Amino acid sequence: MSSRKSRLIKHLAVMLSLVAVVYGGVIGFSYYMGARFLAAMANTPQPPVNVSVARVQSVAWPQTLSAVASVKSVQGASLSPQSAGTVTGLFFDSGDIVRKNQLLLQLNDNVARAQLASAQARLTNARQARDRQKDLIKHRATNEASLEEAVANFREARAAVQQAQAVLTDLQLRAPFDGNLGIREVALGQYVAPGTTVASIEQWDPLRIIFSLPQREILRVQPGDKVHLVVDGLNDEGFDGKVSAIDASVNSRTRDIRIEVRIDNPDELLRAGMYGVARVILKQREQVVAIPQTAITFKSYGTYLYVIEQRQGTDVAVERSVQTGRHHQGFIAITHGVKAGERVVIAGQVKLHNGARVQIVPAPPALTRPQPDHDGN
């Protein structure tokens, strides 16, 4: 019985050994083939990455000066009555467009009208008295003193009528010019004192912008220079204008000089009180090295782009650190890192790494065509 059991154990051990050898051979072969496959993949060259390129250009750009500017009205005012009284008539609503001399507000004028009627009656009597004295003096029936007194009384009565009319006028509020009204601040029946703001009125087109530049720039800016204003949140194109005036003196505290610009606002997007960045476009130009803005890659450790170099007859993308300057018409100036004539990648950078082989394909026109020019050139 024991010998039979021993033989069974031996057969089982042999079978297990055979299974282990076969299984180990299969695993070993799999690892071997995997290693051969990875080695083959590693030695297989990566296909080139499709990219678009542009030549670095040396171009003449207009010089500019930038400053934060405040938008102001050419004509704007806070409207208030010149006399005190109770509001008996309101002839406008908030936001109305009004014309010059349009009646906006009427104060109680009962007393003023009575005073005017009284003054007109006295003027009528004074005129008749003067005319009688003139007839009498022709017939030598009176003396010169009586005539002079009648003339003086007439002039005094006429002045009283003019004064009463002025009082009536002061009880009315009229638009001083064509413009857009703001929010109405008074109501019917309200008592208002002189100087009480009734509403504001502004002209929206054209407008003017005011900004300051350092005194060292005073000789570079001239009346008539073109200015481009960009206001955050409004249209992307901005607004164009021209320098209309340069202040007569430099601020003694800041050593800055104020510049005034007239700017068109045909769509009435701008409002007085807004602010934006004004860029004065000078007549002088400067030579810069420029590339399309899309070539630039911003990373946490600097600003980079890819330059195309020839290595063993193949185009290769090489990462290069650069220093940038100002923007203009969709291009950006490079102050250090590339030179005119070199090719830089402007599309397809996402798939690139330093030293990657590339295949150059045509660039979309929008990447190489300048954006709308704001300096008129």
Low-confidence stretches: 370-377
| Radius of gyration over all CA atoms, rounded | 44 Å
CATH class of the largest domain: Mainly Beta
- Total strand segments: 22
Order of SSEs: HEEEEEEHHEEEEEEEEEEEEEEEEH
Strand order of the largest sheet: 16-17-18-22-1-21
Number of helices: 4
Beta-strand percent range: 35-45%
CATH architecture of the largest domain: Beta Barrel
Largest sheet, in brief, is: 6 strands, mixed
Please identify which CATH superfamily of the largest domain we are dealing with.
RNA polymerase II/Efflux pump adaptor protein, barrel-sandwich hybrid domain
Give the overall silhouette: elongated
Distance between the amino and carboxyl termini: 111 Å
What's the rounded overall pLDDT mean?
86
Helix content: 25-40%
* Alpha-beta content class: alpha+beta
Describe it for me?
The protein folds into 3 domains: 49-60 and 287-368, Beta Barrel (conserved putative lor/sdh protein from methanococcus maripaludis s2 fold); 66-74 and 205-286, Efflux pump adaptor protein, beta barrel domain (Elongation Factor Tu (Ef-tu), domain 3, Beta Barrel); 77-201, OB fold (Dihydrolipoamide Acetyltransferase, E2P), CATH 2.40.50.100. It is elongated. Mean pLDDT is 86; it is low at 370-377. The chain has a 6-stranded mixed sheet, with no helix packed on it. It contains 4 helices and 22 strands. The chain starts with a helix and ends in a 9-residue tail after the last helix. A hairpin with a 2-residue loop joins β17 and β18. α2 runs antiparallel to α3. Helices cover 27% and strands 38% of the residues.
